[in-house]
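Lab meeting, item 3. Inverse folding demo.
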């Protein structure tokens, strides 16, 4: 079973929830019990992978692509849309790094 959550339209907090959050917010960090959280070891960080479970949402759209570009993508075999997305993502990330 899965649920979709609209983060832009979350239900309002109840008075009890607001009171619990206020009580937590008032606690100094050193008074928060973290004994049930295992320590993160060097081995954990050595095997850590950023975004392992992240999967961006996808949107269907219509775009105009030069015919030769589309032919080139399709000539490489199945998965041309995935390749196109990978190319666009690579360029997006490069542009974001340049800032």
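The presenter then showed the designed sequence:
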């Amino acid at each position: 079973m899965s649920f979709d959550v609209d983060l832009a339209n979350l239900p309002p907090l109840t008075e009890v929830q607001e009171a619990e959050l206020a009580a937590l917010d008032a606690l100094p960090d050193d008074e928060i019990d973290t004994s049930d959280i295992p320590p993160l070891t060097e081995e954990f960080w050595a095997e850590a992978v950023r975004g392992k479970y992240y999967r961006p949402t996808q949107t269907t759209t219509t775009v105009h692509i030069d015919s030769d570009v589309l032919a080139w993508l399709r000539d490489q075999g199945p998965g041309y849309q995935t390749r196109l997305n990978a190319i666009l993502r690579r360029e997006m990330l490069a542009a974001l790094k340049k800032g």
